[in-house]
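Escalated from tier 1: SN-glycerol-3-phosphate holo job.
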Amino acid sequence: MQIFIDTADIEEIRDAAAMGVIDGVTTNPSLVAKTGRPFKEVLVDICEVVDGPISAEVLATDYDGILKEARALAAMHENIVVKVPLIAEGLKAVRTLAGEGIRVNVTLCFSPTQGLLAAKAGATYVSPFVGRVDDISGNGMEIVQQLVTIYQNYGLETQVLAASIRHPLHVVQASLIGAHVATIPHKVIHQLLKHPLTDIGLERFLADAKKIPNG
Ligand code: G3P
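Tier 2 regenerated the structure:
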C-alpha cells in the first residue's frame, strides 16, 4: 500500500519525507486554509520536497471552471494530481481531463456507486472518506472494501485511496483490504511507528550501555 501524507503543512511533509515513508501528498482547501499561506506557494514548496503524486483540489463546481483550474494546476508540475469533487460536472471534467492525460483524484466519495462511476469516467484515484462515514455511525472501511472488489471484478485501473483516516486501526484495515493508497495525517503517521515496548527497550539498552567498561 502506498502512503500519502494528508496535510498542506510543509514542516509535517518534510518530517515524514525525511523518514522515507511517504509516496505522495494529498491536500484539500481546509488543509491549505490551516497553513494561512497562499495555495500556489504551498504547492510549489510541496513539489520541491516530495517526488510523487501531489493532490491539489479545484474550487470550481461547473465543467468549464473545473477544467480551467485543473489544467492550470496540472501545468504547475508533473507530479500534480488534480482533485475534483464527485458531482456530475466533476465526472464530465474527469472524462475530458483523463483524455488529455491529466491525472485526477476524485474526492468526497461516500458510496460504492459513486466510486464505480468515478472509475468509469477515468479517475486515476478515488478517495472514499472513511472517518467521515464513521462519524455518522456508518462503516467507512466497508466502502473501501467494496471499491477494491468492484475495481478488481472488472479490471478497472482506478486506485482506491483511503482518505479521512483518523487512527492506526484504519491504516491496518485499509492495508488488509488491499487499498492501493492510504492518505494519513502527520499525527497518525507518528502513531503508527510508536510502541511503548520500543521506548522501554531502548531506555534499558542505553542504561545498560553505561555499565559497559571502557577499553
Ligand atoms: O483529504 C481529505 C480527507 O482526508 C479529509 O479528512 O479528517 O477532514 O475527514 P477529514
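The chain is about 55% helix and 15% strand.
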